[in-house]
Design a protein that fits this description.
FAD/NAD(P)-binding domain, about 25% strand, alpha/beta, four-stranded parallel β-sheet, about 25% helix
Amino acid sequence: MPRPRITLIGNGFASLFFLSYLCRPRFLPPGSRWVRRLLNHYDITLIGNGRFVYFPAIPELITGRKRAADIVVDVRSFLRRRQVRFLEARALDVLDGGRRVVTDRGEVENDALFVGVGPEFLVDDIPGTREHTFSPCCGLEQMEGFLQRLNRLESGVIHVGFKLNKRDGFVAGRGGQMYECATLLHHALTQRGLRERFEIHLFSPDLEPGETGMITDALRARGIVLDYGYQPRAFVEGGMIDADGSLRRADLVLFTPGIRAPEWVRGSCLPITPGGHIDVDRFGQVRGLERVFAAGDCAGHENPPAWVPHQAHMAQLRAEAAADNLRAVLAGKAPTRTYRHELSCILNMHDDALWLHVASDGGRPFGGIFPQHSKRLISVKDAFERLFLFYLRHL
């Protein structure tokens, strides 16, 4: 009997977690390829670019603590160890209820499909975003461009900001990374002895003026100006245009807009939510389609709490549920595995750190053994990163 053909689109967090959970056991020593072959019950093809970037670490390029080479992995050897066929291609469409994927290098048919592609950033929400801002969330090239401009400045005004897409009732954006960027920028300029010559502003229309809390306190303690509730009418050369038409000076703008599924996804047979994400149920199934699952930045949530984010940790939880449910569906059973909603990330501020955590089940990370506020959390965050990258490179 032929093995079911499973196609994955994307090689980011969601797809790699999905693959890991689908191809259990996850940890085998090097040289165990024959064991994996015996345990692999599926004929799997992954469509992607083969280049994985550990996006949570990108803000640390600001202080020089991380380099681009440290956080990029070629995942093709990871896929080979799992007997996964890799197609280096760009997906263009999904047809026939998910059974056929069109790429720029041909078509791939499947018996089951998982979509785990990265997001499209809403760069047209505010005019001038594409031309006059940099974003750490859009990739290493954008961050390196920002740093090149920063290193040429001896003084100035820098605005760091974000806007979220909340049209589907959850947080689709990158607020946490922008907090990190603002605080790490403070320390980078301090290390250069230039901090007093710069103004650093943090702005977002998704923050209420007068909002308080540990993050706000940390920003204020570093002399960062809080422009909560502010949204420019447009980004222009040399600054931002306010609602009244006046120019607000900015020598550099680091800004991340909200996110949704890529344009090609929205033009495919996959159903789309009002906010522009793939419409999935609580099991990770794409609504109305058989044996099609999705998770990660491209996919929506069913009945989410307002605080639920799109982040690597949520991609892991959702990918695990989707993998278990796909396995059940292929065995002729109904999907039963759901996932908890959880925001959990460590905010690295160079000389301090915060563990931001909210869970729908009220649980605490690792049973609460780690403090919520401590510089030692930076080492914990580094450990998570090293373990995951080691896993991709060697296991």
